[in-house]
Structures are given as structure tokens and as C-alpha cells.
């Protein structure tokens, strides 16, 4: 029996190595505004090998808190730096893998059939344009798109006139849906969201200097121990992914 012990040990470590090398799913937690673009990027990645990438799309704030609570995500793709910083401060991302990858624009939208015309400038009559309706916007207290919206409206001097007339949404795609379904006469979303919804139109874009720069950082979490997770991160930063992001209206920062 003693003669077989070295062989048993070798086989044990070989099995561990095979388990670590075996392809497995990669789980990506990503901001809701990335849904359309990342689904295309993920499909291209899945077609290129044995590894399958799967996504969980929601507000960056919700996803960050889920990761903090122990969710087994390999990558986190946030719609702002705040929630990536939140996880970094708690030691939940691999800092050296963090990259500010994408940018976006903030726009005012209306249903496609709307006759509303507005020029976005200081003191513009947003409240009057709403009439008896409400402004669809992601939750300004936690969701990046909502926070950018509040910053923009505050800097333009119109926040106080509409703050009591909001239709808050759990994420930016829900705000988009409210306008698309005609439940709100106006809404504030990212330009990339408006681009994928034929039932809305862009009324006007907010000046870039009316809010913080819209930056999407991506990083591996501390749970990302597989080669496949690192491979997908590199794929997201590569040319094929960049081409897809640009088609959906994102600005590629790298």
C-alpha cells in the first residue's frame, strides 16, 4: 500500500489541475444600459470556444450590493465609477484588472409620436412640457443614470421644478420602458438606450458639462479565479467588442 501512496498523490494533484483547467461559465454583473451591446459581445465570445458567458443586468447599485453580499460574480461592469469604488474600498475587486472602458451621453426622450420640442439650456421649461405627466428617470438616490440626471437638471436650474413630478425607476431600462409605453411624456436615459428602442425619440441631449463624465469601468471580482473569466475580460477590451459597443452608441475610451 505504501508503494502506491506517491502514485495516489500524483493522481490527486492531476485531478485538481484538470478541474481548474476545465472550462466553466463566466458570470458577469453589468449595468442595465449595457444589455443590448453586451448580449452581442457575449454571443460572439460564446461562439469562439467552450466557455459560456452569462449576464445579470440591473442597476449598478443593486449589483454592487449583491456582490458585497456574496454573489458569485466573476466580472462587474458598472455605469459609473462610484459603485466600482464602493467594491474596491471593500476589497471585492482585483484592482489591477480595473479599466475605464466606455463613455455615454445623457438624453431627454419622449414617445415617438410626441410633438414636444425643447432646447436644453439653463432654465429650460421642462416642468411645463411635462404638463400633468411625470418625468421617467432612474432612482436619483442610487442608480447612476438617475444621479447623472439630477446633476444635469440641478446645474441647469430646473431640478426643483420637477423633483416632485418624477416617475422613478429601478434602473435606466425601466425608465426607458415607461416612456416607450406612454406612461410618461418625457424621460431621461442614456443615448445608447434611446438608440435601441424604436418607440421613443430623442428630444435633445444634455450638455456634457452639466453632469459628471459618464464612465463605465469593468473589473474582475475576487471570485474570478478561472482562466475563462480573465479571457472574457480581455475579449471585452478587444477590437470585436469595441466595434459592437460603437454600433450601440457607446464611446470606447481605450
Q: Could you say which structural class the secondary elements and strand pairing correspond to?
A: alpha/beta
Average pLDDT taken over every residue:
91
Order of helices and strands: HEHEHEHEEHEHHEHEHEEHHE
CATH topology of the largest domain: D-Maltodextrin-Binding Protein, domain 2
CATH homologous superfamily classification of the largest domain: Periplasmic binding protein-like II
Extended strand count: 11
Instruction: Tell me the helix content.
Output: 40-55%
CATH class of the largest domain: Alpha Beta
| Number of H- or I-type helical stretches | 11
Largest pleated sheet = 6 strands, mixed
Silhouette: elongated
Task: Give the neighbour order of strands across the main sheet.
Answer: 2-1-3-10-4-11
Q: How would you explain this protein's 3D organization?
A:
There is one protein chain. This protein has 254 residues and is of the alpha/beta class. It folds into two domains: 2-103 and 215-252, Periplasmic binding protein-like II (D-Maltodextrin-Binding Protein, domain 2); 106-210, D-Maltodextrin-Binding Protein, domain 2 (3-Layer(aba) Sandwich), CATH 3.40.190. Helices cover 40% and strands 21% of the residues. The protein contains eleven helices and eleven strands. It has helices spanning 5-21, 35-47, 60-68, 81-89, 126-130, 144-155, 159-162, 172-180, 191-195, 227-236, 239-247, and strands at residues 26-31, 53-58, 75-77, 99-103, 106-111, 135-138, 166-169, 186-190, 200-205, 215-220, 251-252. The strands form two sheets. The chain has a six-stranded mixed sheet with strand order 2-1-3-10-4-11. A five-stranded mixed sheet has the order 7-6-8-5-9, sandwiched between helices. Helix 2 (35-47) links the parallel strand 1 and strand 2. Helix 3 (60-68) packs parallel to helix 4 (81-89). The longest helix is centred in the N-terminal third of the chain and has 17 residues, at 5-21.
